[in-house]
Amino acid sequence: MLKAPLPPDEASRLRSLRDLRVLDTPPEERFDRLTRLTRRLFEVPVALVSLVDDHRQWFKSRQGLDLSETPREISFCAHAIHQDGVFIVPDAHEDQRFRDSPLVTAHPNIRFYAGRPVKAPDGARVGTLCLMDHQPRELDAEDLQLLDDLGTLVEEEFRNLALITTDELTGITNRRGFRSIAGHALALCRRVRRPATLVLLDLDRFKEINDTLGHAAGDKVLRDFSRHLLEAFRDSDVVARLGGDEFCVLLSGTDEKMATRPLENLRLRLEDAARAAPGEPPIRFSAGAASYDPARHPTVEDLLHDADLRMYEAKRAGG
What we know:
By secondary structure, the protein is of the alpha+beta class. 41% of the residues lie in helices and 21% in strands.
């Protein structure tokens, strides 16, 4: 294969990559959520956030691939970072740059590749959001726009690394992080004309738990509820703690009727947990769901408002 040349700004590009302080760090939900969404939307077996280091490409997030890094000299992404737009290899078997690459002739047997360069906050191209398939493929103009939008979300997460977007107690996304992620996710759903549903959840009688058992018990309830939320919903759904005992989940590609299934799954999980630990306070909640309507919900807060109204209707009705 043909090895990609070094970019003219290689020294400063590597400094920008190091300044992100993400190399060799554990997986993070903020990036894994995006690669899962990318893989689902494009229906490809592999989606990655790849960072091009001086001698390797290292995968900050990987779906469908069991490698954590590969040598830079055989990297598709090392070619992709030379351009601003999406770099596409429709059929690696027919491309002299890649047809004898070990990534093509052996595992993971790449035939199709598309990499959208992603930039650090200072504008340096530090890696890609990329797709891979075992069959030749093409991308149309709408696909290219969608991949560009998803790449923008990765860049947004690079910018968010310096911000506090995770709830310290529960480890899930906080309100600030949710507003950012949900805003982009809703824009994507609007663009590709897919439904989305926001579910707002409020713990019932949580104040009583704090008042009678203490804040340590209340904190455990919040952590346990967060864990059950993550297990009951899909791994591509955006789960967040908005504050206090209020939580929400944004389900992309899901209408309001379909959202009832994970809610019922959540209730069953909590009932099972209560039976398994009879000495602990049972966790119960009220929930309200609102379907995303671009005309009614120009902002995330508008959708939250409608879900909030539905949730309080359910709470007054006792369910």
